[in-house]
Amino acid sequence: MKTTIVALTVALCVFAVSEATQVRSCSNDQVIQDSDFVHVSGCEVPPCKLKKKTKINVDFKFKPETEVKSLENSVFAYVLGIPLPFVGVDSTSACSFIFDEAGKPAGCPLKAGTTYFYKNSFDVLEVYPKIKTTVQWALREPSGKDHVCFKVDSRII
Prior knowledge:
This protein is mainly β and 157 residues long.
C-alpha cells in the first residue's frame, strides 16, 4: 500500500512539474491553447514569480514554416509600456539552445515543418526592480521575422 502511495505521489509530482505555462500570443494577445507549448520553471498560471538571484528555465516547442538559417533571442520585459531587454539573453544567438525530438542538439539551420525544442535559462538579476510586468519571448531571424513569440505576465520579487 505504501509503495502504491509513494508511486502515485511521484507520478503526480512529475505531472505537476511538466505542466505548461499559460502564455499569450504576441500577435493577438489571446491565450495559446496548446497544452504543452511553453514551460517556465515554477509557473503554470501567471503571473510567474521571478525571484531575484535565481535562474529561471524556459523551454518550448516550435515548428518553423520555412527553412531558417539562424535565430536570435528577443526577450523583453515591459515596464510602463516600454520594452526593456533582459540583459544577457536578448539579441543573443538561439541556435545552441535548439534540440531535436530525441533531445540532441539541432543547432541551425532548421528545416521547415520539423518540430524543435528550445531550452534556455536566464538569471533574474538583483538590479531588476520588484515590479509586475509582461515578459515577451521570441525567436527571431536577423531579418526581423519571428518564428515563435509569446507573452507571459510576471512579477519580479
